[in-house]
Specification:
Blueprint lengths: L10 H12 L4 H8 L3 H11 L4 H5 L20 H15 L5 H11 L8 H16 L8 H16 L1
């Protein structure tokens, strides 16, 4: 769906700023870590505030007790989800968000959890974040599908 929203030029900085904002990082910290001007970050934060609260919540750090907010969460999957969270933390050195955790869970049914797995997870997450903020996506649906199918093919081999 076309958007009237102006595309941001620094997509990586934008996504990084959004993820930091979802972790309640102060604007000064976001400016410092993204190397983007205070004015640009302030403009981006105003854009972030327009997103629905339930979507923003998906980009906050994962906490297992908060899974109760997701009525469709299959509690029989809790042990495997917690294992994925630990693996993500070990590889990326950060607590994954709910969105990252849910994508990892979905993908883990068909793809091996290896070095490429969490990079693939992040491609889906970033794609959703771009869509959430009505930005042109970095990867087309075709490119995203090819990345997914490539990982699954490697797994089947």
């Amino acid at each position: 769906m076309p958007s009237n929203r102006r595309p941001v030029r620094n997509k990586a900085g934008f996504i990084s700023a959004y993820k930091l904002w979802c972790q309640d990082a102060p604007i000064g910290t976001i400016v410092e870590r993204t190397q983007v001007s205070d004015r640009t970050v302030t403009n981006w934060v105003n854009l972030f505030k327009e997103a629905p609260e339930e979507d923003v919540f998906l980009d906050t750090p994962f906490q297992s007790c908060e899974l109760r907010q997701f009525n469709n969460f299959d509690w029989s999957q809790l042990a495997s989800v917690l294992k994925l969270v630990r693996q993500y933390q070990n590889q990326k050195n950060i607590v994954p968000t709910f969105r990252q955790t849910f994508w990892a869970q979905r993908l883990s049914h068909s793809a091996p959890v290896n070095d490429f797995f969490f990079s693939l997870t992040d491609k889906f997450v970033n794609h959703e974040i771009e869509e959430l903020h009505e930005q042109p996506t970095t990867l087309s649906s075709t490119e995203l599908s090819e990345a997914l199918e490539g990982v699954v093919r490697r797994y089947e081999s």
